[in-house]
Amino acid sequence: MAVFYILLLFMLIAAIIAVETDDLLSSVICVGAIGVGGSIMFLFLRAPDIAITQIVVEVLGLIILIRATLARDLTFISGDREFFGLVVSIVIVFVIFLAGIKVLGNLSAFGTPVFSQIPDAASRTYLAEGLQKTGAANIVAAIILDYRGYDTLGEATVLFTSILGATVMLRSKCRKSLEDKLQ
Amino acid sequence: MKGMTVIVKTISSWVKVLIFLFGINIVLFGHLTPGGGFAGGVILASSYVLLMLAFGREFAEKNLSLTAASRLDCVGALMFAAVALVGLFYGAASFFWNFIHQQYLADKATEFKLVSAGIIPLCNIAIGLKVGASLFLVILLLSAYRINVSTNKKE
Q1: Does B45 sit within 8 Å of A52, measured CB to CB?
Q2: What is the ipTM of this complex?
């Protein structure tokens, strides 16, 4: 349990530094540190699928972000905050804090699965019959590609559409450099 | 952008094969071990990104061109939808019905083997293809965009 608190503290410090620092590159590196902390946390929570995906996406995203920040002129964010904005943000944080206390008090203890408190939860069926019904030893794969196949199809559609949009937006900008290459 | 030093080039020409094989392993064994289509696809894309960082964009584009990447992306998406659609027309079943497992593999003891779980490995391969190709496509386009912006600044 102490591991989680240490990791949480590490991630919180990294997040605060990422927001507050003036240097864009250290901010990007702090975002990467948060991702690594989250990945280790998933590993300790026995969710290796999520941990692998988290670390891989984090590494790739960090490389792209570092290249983007190193190539551009480093912009230094500065300036005083307005008094009204400060008051509003403090009020919003306080409201979210109160709501969090109310909501998180109802959750089960840390490390206890929610479905162990509900008698006929769907997760029990997946765990009991998943291997026999789908034949997949990795129960996560059985759930996301068999029981929840529609969700995965929707995710794939979202990814496809976003890549399509990014391609269409970037293509006109970089057509010139690609055409230069072809000639 | 002609790539990095000869040390980086030599090491990455060895390592890129290992990363690619590891990605294929993660995709193919997605129904047995942790991982799956998405994580494996990102690893496949990252091997090409390593190639792009070490040898320059032109070299990576020679290996896997923009057209080929977008075609692979579409092939992955269509394969995923096709696997789901076959379940609809196979017997009296529904969308995303695991027809291979229910028809052929259910009464054989195929648990914990590579050929098991029916359509799940096929879906993993389709998603891996799609995610890998599309991420590589976007990173290639972003780097081309960056070069174009920097050349515009110089002019």
Answers
A1: no
A2: 0.75
Please give the Cα distance from A44 to B7 (Å, whole number). 37
* H-helix segments, B29-154: 37-55, 57-63, 66-89, 99-100, 119-154
Number of helices and strands in chain A (H, E): 7, 0
Best B148, B152, B153, B155 member to test A by mutation, with max A CBs in 10 Å, is B148
Between residues B49 and A180, which one has the greater pLDDT? B49
Nearest Cα residue to B135 out of A61, A157, A68: A61
Measured over all CA atoms, what is the biggest interatomic distance in chain B, rounded to whole angstroms?
70
pTM attached to this predicted model: 0.74
Of residues B74, B12, B76, B75, the one with CA closest to residue B47: B12
Q: Using 50 as the pLDDT threshold, list the residues of chain A that sit under it.
A: none
A112 Cα to chain B: minimum distance (Å): 21
According to the model, what pLDDT value does residue A115 have? 75
User: Which of B17-21, B54-58, B67-71 is predicted most confidently?
Assistant: B17-21
Confidence of residue B68 (pLDDT cuts 50, 70, 90): confident
Choose, out of B25, B38, B153, the residue to mutate when testing the contact with A (most A CBs < 10 Å). B38
Residues 6+ apart with CB under 8 A from B96: A146, A149, A150, A153, B84, B87
Q: A-chain residues within 8 Å CB-CB of B43? A: 56
d(CA A150, CA A127): 19
Alpha-carbon gap, residue B88 to B91, rounded angstroms: 8
Q: Domain limits of chain A?
A: 1-76, 99-147, 149-183
CA distance A134 to chain B (A): 5
